Structures are given as structure tokens and as C-alpha cells.
Amino acid sequence: MLMIRLKYRGALPLAREFGERLGDALREVAPANRHRDSIPLVVPVPLAPSRLASRGFNQAWELARVAARRASLPASVGVLHRARTTPAQRRLSRDARQRNLRDVFVASERIEGRHIVLIDDVMTTGATCDAAAAALKRAGAVHVLAAVVLRTPPSAHSIN
């Protein structure tokens, strides 16, 4: 319910609460003694431009920027973008989600050798994270870790 309030009703203070908890978890991913080149870059799952315009914000970016600040990691909203707008995923099966997201994400820059923390609000089947991670790896990322606030239970996404 809280994520619905953030995502669809613009309750942005919830992004701070959720983002800080993500940031606490990310502190373990990037210890302070790491070499600069292996420090993960925090990247949000992008929204389609039309959804961003209608919503007014990208909840994944709101979460990512708070989490990155909390974990003292760099973040970039511009590394990944959507090549096209896709239908909403909510009522799609895993296979339909994968088809829906085929080649939809494109990296805007080369990220050779980078470790990436991909931030999203909710993971249902993993199709969005898989598609975004594939685009980041095509752009040169050596490792992509998906970090999400909520994970739906398997029974909630076994739509046929």
C-alpha cells in the first residue's frame, strides 16, 4: 500500500524512507576500502518519457538518489533510458513481460568495467531487472546487482 502511495499518488516522503533502507543495505555492497574503479554506480530503472511526464517523477530515481547518498555511492539518472514506451506490466505473465521488454532499455554511455547497482521499486517476475541488466552489460558493465524495495511473492505473479 505504501509503495502504491509513492508510485501513483506522489507521496515522495516515502521515497526517502524506502531509499534510506536501501542505502543501508548497499553500504555492505561497497565497503569504504574499495578501489575507486570498483565502487558501484547506482542507476535507476528508467520510466518511459510519457510516464515520466504524466507522473512527474521516476520513483526508481527518487529511491536511487536517496540510497546512493546514504551509502556514499555515485548515482546517475542518465546511464540508462527506454528506447520506446511499453504497455504496463501489471497484468502480464512472465513470458509476456519478457516480450514486452525485449530491447527496450539502452545505455546512454559506455560503462566499461563498472559495477552497477540497478534500483527499482518492486520486483515481480524479474523481467524488468533482467532486461535493464542486459542493456547495462552490453554497455560494458562487469556486474549488475538489482536492488529493489519490495519483492512480490511468487503466487502474486504466476499469471497465466
TrEMBL record:
SUPFAM superfamilies: PRTase-like. InterPro entries: ComF/GntX_DNA_util-trans, PRTase-like, PRTase_dom. Residues 97-152 form the Phosphoribosyltransferase domain. Belongs to the ComF/GntX family. This is DNA utilization protein GntX. It comes from Pandoraea sputorum.
